[in-house]
Amino acid sequence: xxxxxxGLCLVVVAGCxxxxxxxxxxxxxxxxxxxxxxxxxxxxTVSWDIAALKEGEWVETETKSGAYSAKTKNACVAIxxxxxxxxxxxxxxxxxxxxxxVDKGDRKTKKxxxxxxxxxxxxIKVQNMPxxxxxxxxxxxxxxxxxxxxxxxxxxxxxxxxxxxxxDITTTIQGKDYRGQSTSWMSDKVPFRSWYxxxxxxxxxxxxxxxxxxxxxxxxxxxxxxxxxxxxxxxxGMGTDAKMTVKLPxxx
Length: 252
Fold this sequence. Notes:
Blueprint lengths: L3 H15 L21 E2 L16 E8 L2 E13 L2 E8 L5 E7 L6 E8 L5 E2 L2 E2 L13 E15 L2 E16 L2 E12 L22 E4 L8 E7 L2 E9 L13
Parallel strand pairs: 1-8, 9-12
Antiparallel strand pairs: 2-3, 2-14, 3-4, 4-5, 5-6, 6-7, 9-10, 10-11, 11-13, 13-14
């Protein structure tokens, strides 16, 4: 299992959290607002391989957990002015779109706009993610198994070859065990794949208490499906025809 597997999970979390709202002055995009301004961190996009994105590429994922269901779409809508522009939309924020201008070098968000589809968006200040000291206490210890194999997932009639990872990991923190079981399917044939660091090597290679069966073969991959304790995140669509849906403010 390579480090990108962890990175892909972070992409999912970051993508959902970005459109979560809160933290603003209650304003929104042009034409009135019923949504608070979201908080946008520069580091939100660092897990993506921004340089690999092509204009027009998009992916849509669906998250299901119990009665909850929501779809999130990421789309590369333009590459201009030295930035890669990514739109994010969430079905729970009907009609609202976040537009991010991302540097392909450090993969950080430099510009952010928030607005309704078809209307002029409002610029949102990009913040650096807060940092703090390491929490007190012992270093968490993990043990368990990871099984890696090849599998195929069909999305909108298209069969996608994936590396499948089945994990059963128990982490001990201050004497208490936390067990996590998950299965993920990842492919390098899907847009918005994770950034791969050649120096990272195998994520579990230095932990003899985690037994790995099989071999992770991908260098940078996007999540196609992930299941974990009653929740499922799955790719439900992708394409190459994305266009910008909000209007940038006109310079005065």
